[in-house]
Amino acid sequence: MLLEGSCHCRAVRFRVETPEPYPFMYCYCSICRKTAGTGGYDINLGADAATLNVLKGKRQLRIYRATMGEGEAARPSTGHRHFCSRCGSPLWLWDPTWPELVHPHA
After folding, report:
1. What are the C-alpha distances in Å from 63 to residues 12, 20, 81?
2. Separation between Cα atoms, residue 89 and residue 12, nearest integer Å
3. Pick from 56, 77, 78, 52: which is nearest to 67 by CA?
4. 3-state DSSP helix/strand/coil percent for the chain, to nearest 5?
5. In the predicted model, is pLDDT for residue 22 greater than 70?
6. Dihedrals φ, ψ of 15, to 5°?
7. If you average pLDDT over residues 47-62, what whole number do you get?
8. What is the C-alpha separation between 104 and 106, in angstroms, rounded?
9. pLDDT at 36 exceeding the cut of 90
10. 100: left (phi > 0), else alpha (psi -120 to 50), else beta?
11. Which helix (H) or strand (E) holds 81?
12. Does pLDDT of 84 surpass 70?
């Protein structure tokens, strides 16, 4: 299934494919709830990272790596949360722990 997405201001547009007929996923972790949450959770999709194609706005892309833990135990998350630098919309999450997957907000 072909998924298409963009940020709110439409400066960034992308396409990605998923092998799943219903690729929706809810995430309730504190990072997703605070960076892109809705009703106390985040909605994203599972897709094939090799098919991700940024059609427009590569220069507007930024990456946020959340901090996990506190104090001396604090460390950056392995997840790379891509977002639009103009409007702040979350676009997708990619994590090198699972390089074949990407989780777009399409």
Report:
1. 13, 26, 5
2. 10
3. 77
4. 15, 45, 40
5. no
6. -135, 150
7. 96
8. 5
9. no
10. alpha
11. strand 80-84
12. yes
Give residue 48's pLDDT band: very low, low, confident or very high (50, 70, 90).
very high
Give 61's contacts (C-beta < 8 A, 6+ positions apart): 12, 54, 82, 83, 84, 85, 91
Q: What token pair was written down for 1?
A: 């299934």
pLDDT in the model for residue 85: 98
Range with the largest mean pLDDT of 17-21, 30-34, 53-57: 53-57
Which residue's structure tokens are 């092998």?
Answer: 19
Report the alpha-carbon distance of residue 22 to residue 6 in Å, rounded. Answer: 19
DSSP, residue by residue, 42-74:
EEEE-EEGGG-EEEE-GGGEEEE--EESSGGG-
Q: Which residue has the tokens 């809705």?
A: 38
Q: Which two tokens stand for residue 72?
A: 């001396």
